[in-house]
Specification:
This protein is of the alpha+beta class and 276 residues long. The protein is 30% helix and 14% strand.
Length: 276
């Protein structure tokens, strides 16, 4: 167990290959395999140095945890430390699948080296983040953790910050930028016709050109200003013009009468203004 300052408290709580001899276990305090073993001169017992320090603090004085004698001396037992360092143990990620077995003195190298334990969780080297469990946002401090053995695959196939080329226009950026912001504006991004015609995968930059010819694009009748309110799709335009000739003529005549009446009204109003 580590404190906030990084100091290791208590002994080693590892999974050892063989049963650990009793003399290598912290007496009366944490009962774990000794970490930084110190030998007392009062009763000849071994304790983790950090366990002793915490014991003294709780007691308010320096008293032996085993025999309760005060004013005793203690020293680092180097021969015992060497024996502990040579104990064979399983990787701390043994239950996750790591098959490493080695001496206790080598476990930190195994866990922390780039070529070491593949089951250690490490930060993504692109510093990508994972969604916050509380708000769903991606905070810069919430770095994604991946197992070391999976890091290469993550960087190549999964990381949202991996380099990625738009398959439509070949622009390069991060995967998350290309697949979100860029895809919404990429000129070559394929779109379906909004009129649901048979043409599909139209480049965004060519959509206006397509719609200018699309048979299902709604078009206005050229007699709209005269009063025809019919809207048809392009493929029905010619039929509408052919079948509505009489109606269009009547519409034009009606518009002409209205225009003529307006003109007469304007003449009368002009005459009244001049008379006054």
């Amino acid at each position: 167990m580590a404190s906030r300052t990084g100091v290791q408290y208590r002994g080693y709580d590892y999974e050892f290959v063989e049963e650990v001899p009793e003399e290598l276990v912290c007496s009366a305090i944490c009962t774990k395999v000794l970490r930084d073993p110190h030998l007392t001169d009062c009763c000849g017992q071994h304790f983790c140095n950090s366990c002793l320090q915490r014991w003294f603090k709780r007691q308010g004085k320096q008293v032996c945890p085993h025999c309760r004698m005060e004013r005793f001396s203690r020293i680092l037992d180097k021969p015992v430390k060497r024996r502990i360092d040579q104990l064979k143990m399983h990787c701390t990620n043994h239950k996750a699948g790591c098959e490493w077995v080695g001496e206790l003195s080598s476990v930190q190298t195994h866990l922390n080296s780039d070529s070491g334990c593949g089951y250690v969780e490490v930060d993504c080297t692109n510093r990508c983040t994972e969604c916050c469990s509380n708000c769903g946002s991606r905070h810069t401090s919430n770095l994604l953790k991946v197992r070391r053995k999976d890091l290469a695959r993550h960087l190549e196939q999964e990381c949202p910050k991996r380099r990625y080329k738009c398959k439509h226009c070949k622009k390069e950026d991060t995967y998350e930028t290309i697949t979100t912001t860029h895809y919404s504006e990429c000129p070559n991004y394929p779109l379906d016709c909004p009129n649901e015609c048979e043409t599909t995968e139209i480049k965004r930059a060519e959509m206006d050109q397509h719609r200018s010819k699309c048979p299902l694009e709604p078009v206005e009748c050229p007699f709209r200003e005269a009063g025809c309110q019919v809207k048809v799709v392009r493929k029905e335009f010619e039929s509408h013009m052919a079948n509505s000739q009489q109606q269009h003529l009547l519409t034009l005549m009606g518009a002409f009468r209205l225009a003529k009446a307006d003109l007469e009204t304007m003449k009368v109003e002009k005459g009244d203004l001049e008379a006054n």
